[in-house]
Structures are given as structure tokens and as C-alpha cells.
Specification:
By secondary structure, the chain is of the alpha/beta class. The protein is 15% helix and 14% strand. It has helices spanning 71-76, 102-110, 128-139, and strands at 65-68, 82-85, 88-89, 94-95, 121-124, 144-147, 166-169. β5 (121-124), α3 and β6 (144-147) form a beta-alpha-beta unit. α2 crosses α3 (128-139). The radius of gyration is 19 Å and the shape is globular. The termini are far apart.
């Protein structure tokens, strides 16, 4: 919806502005489902798919895990302290392979691409964003080119080999 004039228009996947607007305006989502109801049958952030601007569900999605704290709660003298964690800590159910909340961004952005996508996604990053997009795209066979400064290539590590659909380019140096 165009916030300036209230015009409702269809999102075509990457819509950032009202194509018929006479001037600049913010756009906001108008949800078909008014009640926020997570889908417990879906994994990670896709539990909230009815409120995400996505066109498909990707495999391997993880998301934050909320759990009742014991140690920190005890230190602080609290009985009911809940923490939300994004990363890799299987003992609490957190299994984000990249160990970064940036994976949430990668799963939501890549899920906007149609299944029959014939375009190549390009991401420029100096670390966690590159790692997250590379892993998500590799796991879901989405063509990706990652541009990372040569000085930061060491920040890219993966639990398994990336598929050939992901290309990493590192030809520049960070300005000093």
C-alpha cells in the first residue's frame, strides 16, 4: 500500500515503491491474514510465512530460539528469565549453521525469488552476510555471486562444501 495516498497495489516480488505514485512515498504490507498465527509445521522463520513477503519455503531454515535461562537467571536472582538466541547451540535447539542472525535475512530475501528464477543474485559483504547468503543459496541451488574484499576472505567458513551455483569473488582490498 502507498502510505501517501492509500492506493493498494500488488507486490511483484521486489517492489520498493508504488509504480503509479506521483511522488515519493513509503510502502507498507497489507496482510490478507489479520491474525498473527505462527505455523508450527514450518521451520525457522517460515513459521511466520503468512506475514512474510515470500513466494516459497526454502529448506534448512532456522531461526531464533527462545528458552528459559537457568544460569543467568540465577546470577541475576530471577525466577523467570527467557532469552532469545540466534546461532549454533544444539543443546538449546539453536542450529543456525552460519552462527549468525544474518541467515534470517538470507532465508527471507531468497524466499522472495520465484522457483523458476533465472537471474543471479549478487551480494557484496565483508563477512557474515556473505556467509549466510552463500550457505542458503548453496543449500537451495540458487545462483549467487558473492563479492568480498580480499582482506576478509578468511571470514568465510562453511560446515560443508558450497555447490557450484555459488561463486565467490575477492579482488579488492579494503581501504586503509
Amino acid at each position: 500500500m502507498n502510505v501517501a495516498d492509500g492506493r493498494i497495489f500488488k507486490d511483484k516480488g521486489w517492489t520498493l515503491a508504488d509504480p503509479l505514485s506521483s511522488g515519493p512515498s513509503l510502502v507498507r504490507a497489507v496482510y490478507e491474514q489479520k491474525q498473527f498465527t505462527p505455523n508450527e509445521n514450518l521451520e525457522g522463520i517460515y513459521r511466520y510465512a503468512s506475514w512474510l513477503p515470500i513466494s516459497r519455503i526454502l529448506k534448512g531454515a532456522q531461526g531464533p530460539v527462545t528458552y528459559k535461562s537457568k544460569g543467568l537467571a540465577r546470577e541475576l536472582g530471577l525466577d523467570n528469565l527467557y532469552l532469545t538466541f540466534t546461532g549454533y547451540a544444539p543443546e538449546i535447539g539453536a542450529e543456525t549453521a552460519t552462527c549468525s542472525f544474518k541467515a534470517t535475512e538470507a532465508y527471507s530475501v531468497c524466499a522472495r525469488l520465484p522457483k523458476d528464477n533465472d537471474r543471479i543474485l549478487v551480494v557484496q559483504s565483508a563477512g557474515n552476510t556473505a556467509r549466510a547468503f552463500a550457505q542458503v543459496c548453496s543449500d537451495n541451488n540458487i545462483p549467487l555471486v558473492v563479492c568480498i574484499p580480499r582482506d576478509n576472505v578468511g571470514a568465510l567458513w562453511f560446515h560443508k562444501r558450497l555447490r557450484p551455483c555459488v561463486k565467490i569473488i575477492s579482488r579488492c582490498h579494503l581501504a586503509r
